[in-house]
Amino acid sequence: MSGGGIRARAPEPGKRTMAEYDIAVIAGDGIGPEVTREAWKVLDATADVYGFRTRRRDYPFGTDHWLATNELFPDEAFEEVRGMNAVFLGAIGDPRAPVGLVEHGVIMRMRVGLDLFVNLRPIKLYDARLCPLKDKRPEDVDMVIVRENTEDAYTAKPEYTDKGGPDEVASQPMRYTRRGTERIVRYAFELARARSHLGGKERKLLLIDKTNAVPAQDLWTRVFAEVGREYPDVKTDHAYIDAACMWMVKNPEWFDVAVTTNLFGDIITDLGAMIQGGMGIAASGNIHPGRVSLFEPIHGSAPKYAGKSVACPVAAIMAASMMCDYLGEKAAAGAIEQAVKDLLASRRLKGVGTGDHPTNEVGDMIVAEVRAVAARV
Ligand code: IPM
Ligand code: MG
To answer: Is 266 designated active site?
Structure first.
């Protein structure tokens, strides 16, 4: 799962070489900058404790920058980012820009331009009181949704005939390639195999599609079966997307790893975020194994809460944890996760909702707890 790659650095005589990572930071719109500030507060403190460094490079892209300069993501900056180890994104989107413009110019540009074909979305409940479902415990909600991230309607060209007229037809096909499907399915099998030792519940890989209504998706069915033959040790299952939504609410404990298309993955992971405690805690990684990859909270920019210090930064902090994991800093990643878990379980963190704590207080608490976690081991 890791493989961000470390920049080679000549060791100084008598000193242990310290890993250093080049990270592009796009704090973005709305609450993006304030949650990013907390995530970096935690990341810097954690790096200090676990002995690595980050070289951070900030980029101003987002709606303000677009309004001021008409620029979304200039090629020169894009090429710079391509050479880094990771990208951290706060949030993008603002009603002052046309719908989807900045999202496409920044997030989609990186997902497609950097070929970040895996959108990894862990759904893990850290404390029972955060779950809106009756009687569900942390052991019941622990899954990973592997969302394809470069194909589907998301990257197909929208087409219109008779636009605005009475015979208007608008289309944007759900297009899948064998190569695109195979690489995400293979990634999901690898992940399911890696999690199979975790025990606890039945471990398996679930394919989610809608082949009963969209027969072209049988490409996914066929590829899943073909790749699955190489993983006889991984148990597999299948659900249509509508049923998968139903099961996720009724029996989330049945889910372990699930793989699905870009659009279905987008939708079901918002549902997943709610059962783990909401948008204040859900994080994701946009990954191309071995190359620069992007980490972000799932939530949007929530412009109405911007600058009020009410946004919950835990999702951004969990994205920083995922980034550490990707970079190979497993102990640091685990410590951040453990700190969040401990603070929630002990109720020092009242919740992950808007206004539960001042934004900066949450970062401070997690920094202190990361130090406490590190001191325990
Ligand atoms: C997400 C978001 C994006 C998506 C938007 C902002 C384009 O909803 O990361 O899930 O649809 O993928
Ligand atoms: Mg979404």
So the answer is: yes
**What pLDDT, in 10s, does the model give residues 203-244?**
999 999 999 999 999 999 999 999 999 999 999 999 999 999
Which of 342-365 are b and which e, b meaning 16 or more Cβ less than 10 Å from the residue's Cβ?
A: bbbeeeebebbebeebebeebbeb
The pLDDT tens digits of the residues spanning 111-157 come to 999 999 999 999 999 999 999 999 999 999 999 999 999 999 999 99
Instruction: Report CA-CA distances (Å) from 134 to 248, 250, 274, 300.
Output: 13, 9, 13, 27
Instruction: Give CA–CA dist 183/195, Å, rounded.
Output: 18
Closest CA to 248 of 121, 143, 97: 143
Q: What gap in Å lies between CA 236 and CA 362, rounded to an integer?
A: 39
**Residue with token string 């470069």:** 150
Q: How far apart are CA 257 and CA 236, in angstroms?
A: 10
Q: Ligand 2 mean position to 91 CA, how many Å?
A: 12
Selecting among 41, 124, 136, 210, the annotated active-site residue is 210
**CA triplet 128, 132, 134: central angle to 5 degrees?**
75
pLDDT at residue 40 tops 90: yes
Q: What is the dihedral of CA 213, 217, 218, 221, to 10 degrees?
A: -110
pTM of the predicted protein model: 0.94
**From ligand 1's centre to the CA of 288, what distance in Å?**
17
User: Quick one: pLDDT at residue 198?
Assistant: 85
Backbone angles phi, psi at 310, to 5 degrees: -115, -10
Query: Which DSSP letter does residue 118 get?
Result: E
For ligand 1, atom 10, name the residue with the nearest CA. Answer: 266
**CA count, 13 A, side-chain hemisphere, 287:** 27
Q: Could you give the angle at which helices 314-327 and 330-345 cross, rounded to 10 degrees?
A: 150
- Give yes or no for residue 6 having a pLDDT over 50: no
Q: Cα–Cα distance between 91 and 280 in angstroms, integer?
A: 12
The more confident residue out of 260 and 202 is 260
Neighbours of 140 (CB within 10 A): 19
**107 pocket-lining for ligand 1 (C-beta < 6 Å):** yes
Q: What's the gap in Å between 230 CA and the centre of ligand 2?
A: 32
Under the banding of pLDDT at 50, 70 and 90, the label for residue 184 is: very high
